[in-house]
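FIELD: query
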Amino acid sequence: MGLGGSWEDGRYGAREVDLAEAAVAAAVESGIGRFDHADIYRRGSAESVFGEVLRRAPELRARIRIQGKVGIRLAAGDVVGHYDLGAVAIREGVLGSIERLGVERLDVLLLHRPDPLWEPVEVASAVAELQRDGLVGDVGASNMSTAQLVALQDALGTPLVANQLEMSLARHGFVDSAVLVNHPDNVGTDFPHGMLEHCGRRGIELQAWGALAAGRYTGGSAVDGRTAATAALVARMAADLGVTPEAVVLGWLMRHPARIAPVVGTTNPDRIRACAQAESVAAAMTRVQWYTLYTAARGKPVP
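FIELD: result
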């Protein structure tokens, strides 16, 4: 999302391409081989800049997987921003992404947000046509509920491979929804109930956008005492483990048995490299350490 020009007009130059090249190089060096895009990011320039990086190093394409998202129409003139999972919009979105990226296909296509006016059968037909044409590999969803995944899967002729949702140490509703069963605080939980279990049963990967919570625990500004205390705890744990705070925050997510895959949004090469140890932190993190971080972020003990 952070690559490319401005959100206003999407213009970019050589500087933006250089910055993107450095970010991609840091990611690949750190063992990251999947890159998440969307046709709306920076009004398309995020994909265009990434495509420029691939043109500079065409051998990179064989080493990575490219994931794209379609289904959101940004506001333009008198037209309000809206969602569109109609067949025409899906195909146009994919073709636009492929052209900007300079690739032959998207390895994974996610439907960016649920469209209240969607017809799952129409969506399935559009996806099947894209797959037949070799323009799309696997298919998944983003920001969808359990029921929406079921409705989509019932219409599709191919298994859903992912659902991308906001999950982080700060946005811990995915834990609250399990911890607060039969508890009055559960009414305030905004994460789709049963999502983790459904995805686990169906083999659907859970991807976490906003996984670093905009850096609030890793050097960002603390907006309140709870955030400051949690950031201090993360820093102490990182020092004890000999890793970066970013690795602790992502490791906490990855420690969950749902095998959550964090989506790292930063384009800063140093911060990207700081995430490299997350997998080892997840493997080493104890149950007590995990709950200690959760309790700090939650601001109160578990019931």
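FIELD: remark
The longest strand covers residues 136-142.
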